[in-house]
Amino acid sequence: MGFTIHSRPFGEIEISEKQILTFKEGLFGFDNCEKFALIEEESQAPFQWLQSLEEKDLAFIVIQPNIFLESYDPLLTEEELAEIDLQKTAQGFSLLIVTIPNEDMSKMTANLQGPVVINPEKKLAKQYISRDPAHPIRYQMMPANAEVEEKE
To answer: How many Å apart are CA 79 and CA 91, to the nearest integer?
Structure first.
């Protein structure tokens, strides 16, 4: 079943129930927002949008960390994962990283310190704090010498 929401990046957009995630504690700094839609647009791949259903102007650009950082592991405990009905040994959970956009794409950063973990089966999600001291809040996603391909 689909319905229409207003999203900051796309205006009026049709979403399905399958796209809605529940953050029982909200996101860091936005604990009053519990429902978000995960929006994928082919033209913006590999990025996705995490759009609040409570605050139409609240949307985050997210990306799966393994796309730009193969060895990312936020060192979460089994107790933390149990908060969204996951087991550490279980397969099938998703990790997303909130990105910090910049007009200069080569300067885009990602928050490795605050990963979002998703239980896709139960549509539950939570933002955690990584215990790995090597995970900064502003990780440079592209090496300084990398060339950025501009899309027309």
So the answer is: 16
